[in-house]
Fold these 2 entries.
Entry 1:
Amino acid sequence: MSAFMEETKCLLPRIAFIACGCFSPPTPMHLRMFEIARDHFEMQGTHKVVGGIISPTHDSYAKKGLASSLDRCAMVKLAVQSSNWIRLSDWEVHQNQWMRTQSVLQYHQNFMNNYLNSAAGAGDAEPNGSLPGWLPFSLRERKDPVHLKLLCGADLLESFAVPGLWAEADIEDIVANHGLVVITRCGSNPEKFIFESDILTKYKRNITLITNWVPNEVSSTLVRRLLSRGQSVKYLIDDLVLEYIKRQRLFNVKSKYITDAVRPNHLIFNHAYTDNNKNAANSLIGEQNMDESDSPSPQLLQQATSRVFCCGDTSPRGPKLLRVGPGQAVQVITMQSDEKAESQAKKQKIAQVQL
Ligand SMILES: Nc1ncnc2c1ncn2[C@@H]1O[C@H](COP(=O)(O)OP(=O)(O)OP(=O)(O)O)[C@@H](O)[C@H]1O
Ligand SMILES: O=C(O)c1ccc[n+]([C@@H]2O[C@H](COP(=O)([O-])O)[C@@H](O)[C@H]2O)c1
C-alpha cells in the first residue's frame, strides 16, 4: 500500500511557492505560511511541493520601516537556516529598480523551466558559474515542469483593491497563469474579497484559500515597534534574527538590546553576506564561494539614485525621481481605507503606522 502511495506521489504535478514581501524583519509567520501551504497540498494529495522561495522586495519600494535589502536578506538567510526547503532569493533586491510581483514570478518560473529543459550540467549556471541558492534541490529528480505559485497572506490579496497599486493585467496574469495560495489572516475575508472581484472570481480555480487554524498576528510592524520601545521581542522572532538586529542596530533598537559584548559564532556567515555585498557594491568585485543568492550585485550601487514608477503611474514623462516608493502608496491608501472601515487587519496595520 505504501509503495502504491509513493508511486502515486511521484506522479503528482509539482509546485513551488514564492512569497514576496518586505520581511523587515522576517517573522515566524512568514515561514509558517510555507508550512501551512505545503501541509494543505500534501493532505489534499493533489500536488507535490518541491520548494519554497522568499523574495524580499527592492529597497526602492520605500515602505515605512524597510531595512536595507542587505540586512533583510541576511535576516531571511538566518531565519531559513532551520528549514530544509525554504530558501532566499535575492534576485529582486539586485535589480536596479523595484520589480512588480508578476515579473518576479515570471523570472523565477522561467529560470526553473530553462533549468529543467537544459541537459544536466549545461545551461544551468549563472554567469559566475553557480546555481542560484533559491533553486529547489530536487528539481531535476523528475523532468516534468514545476509550477510556481504566489504564496501570500490575505492582506496582500486585499491590497489588489488599493486603487492604482497593482496593474490589472498583472493581477490577471498572476491568477490565470501562476496561481495564488492565500493564508487567512485575522480580520480579512478573502472569500468575500474574491466574490467581489470579477477577475478573481473568473480564475477562482487557481486560487487556493487556506484557513490558518493557528493564527498568529505577529507582524514585522509590531516587532519593529516593540524594538524601538526597548520592549522584548523574544519568542516573536527567531533568536538568530534578533541577534542580528541587535548587532546591526536595526529598527531604532533601544539600548537594552545592544549590550551584548560577544559576537555569536552563528552570525559570522551572515556578516559575511552583508560585508561581502557591501564590499561588492563599493568595489564591483565579485565574491567566491557563494551561491547566487549570496552574490553581490553592482546594481546595488545604483540604488541610492534609482528611479521608480510609482504604482499606477503611467505618465509619458517617464519615471519619477525616487522620493516616494510604491510601498509608501500602500500606507497612504490603506489609511484612507481605514476611514472606510474596510477590514480589521488593515485597521490594525494602520494603527501601527500611526503610532
Ligand atoms: N501573521 C501573518 N499571517 C498571515 N500572513 C502573514 C502574516 N504576516 C505576514 N504575512 C504575509 O507575509 C507576506 C510578506 O509580508 P510582509 O513582510 O510584506 O508584511 P508584514 O509581515 O505584514 O509586514 P509589515 O508589518 O511591515 O506590513 C505577505 O503575504 C503577508 O500577507
Ligand atoms: O506588483 C505589484 O504591482 C505590487 C504592488 C504592491 C505590492 N507588491 C508587492 O507586494 C509585497 C508586499 O507588499 P506590502 O506593501 O503589502 O508589504 C511586496 O513584495 C511588493 O513588492 C507588488
Entry 2:
Amino acid sequence: MHAPDIRHSLSSAARETHARLHGRIEGAVASYIPALAAMPPDLFGIALMTPSGAVAEAGDTRHPFTIQSVSKCFTYAMVLDLLGRDAVRAGVGVQPVGEPFNVIELDPRSNRPFNPMINSGAIAVAGLLRQTLGPDAFAMVKARLSACAGRMLEVDAAVHASEAESGHRNRAIAHLLRAAGAFTADPQEAVELYFLQCSLLVTAHDLAVMGATLAAIGTNPLSGKEVFGVDAVRDTLSVMFTCGLYDGAGDWACRVGLPAKSGVGGGVVAVVNRQLGLGVFSPRLNADGNPHRGLLACEMLAEDLGLHAFDATNSGSSLLPSLAPG
Ligand SMILES: NC(=O)CC[C@H](N)C(=O)O
C-alpha cells in the first residue's frame, strides 16, 4: 500500500470505529479521587500513528487526561535502558499474575512483584529509577516520556496532590518492596516518583505517538530521535503482551493480540510491532478498572485492520510499505 492509501484506510477505520462505539457508555469514571471523578464521562478519542508519522484521528483526541498506569510501560522501558535486563529483573519479574492492578502479594518464588504492569511492579521500577538517578529522577522520567510523546508533558497538580494524599495502599506497597529488598531507595521517594509519573497529562494523540515510538523500535516518528533502545523495547512489548491488561491479559492476547497498557485516567495504548501505535481515550472504566470503550475500540480496530499478532491473513503487515510483500 502507498502512503496516501495507508492514511486513508487508517482514517476511515478510526472514524468508523468511533461512530460504531459512540453510544457504548457503560462503566463509570474513576472516582477514588475527586480530580478524576470530574472528567466529563463521555469523551471518546481514537488516534493512530505509523512509524513514519502518518496520523489518523477521530473524536476527542486532543483532550488532556492523566496517563496513570499507561506510564508503567514507558518507565519500564526507561529502567531497562538504564540498568539492563538482569539488574531490572533483580527488582521485578515478568510473570503474568491474574490479579487486579493493586494486588499486594509478591511472587513467592522471588519475593519480588510479579511484573511491572501492576502497581507493585511499577513502584519497584520507580524505586530502581530513584536509587539510580537520585533527586532528578522525576525530571528525567518526564523528559523521557516527553521525548516519547514528541512534546513536553506536564503534571496535573490537582491529580498529583490527591494521589499523594490518598495513596496509602501504594505507600504500603513501597515499604513492603523496600523491606523485601526490591530496591534500596527511600520508599517514600519511590512512591512519590510513581505518583508524579501517573499524574502526567497526555492526550489520545500523544498515546498514539508514544505507541508508534515503541512500534518503531524506540524511535519517535515525529522527531526521528531514539528514545528507547531495541532491547528495552523488545522486553517492554513482551511484558505488555502478557501482562498489560492485568487479570484480563490472557483473554486480551487471544481476542486482540496486541501488546497494550491501560490506565484509570481513561487512556489505552496498543502497539502493532513495526507498524502502528494506537492511542484511545474513553474515561468510563469497567469493573477491572480498564477503559471499557477504549478496549472495545482496540478490539474493533484489530479486527478490521487485521492487526492481531497471529492473524492468519496477516493483513496488518500491508500497513507499512517497507514491510509489504513484493
Ligand atoms: N490502573 C491505574 O491506572 C492505577 C493508577 C493509580 N494512580 C494507582 O496507582 O492506583
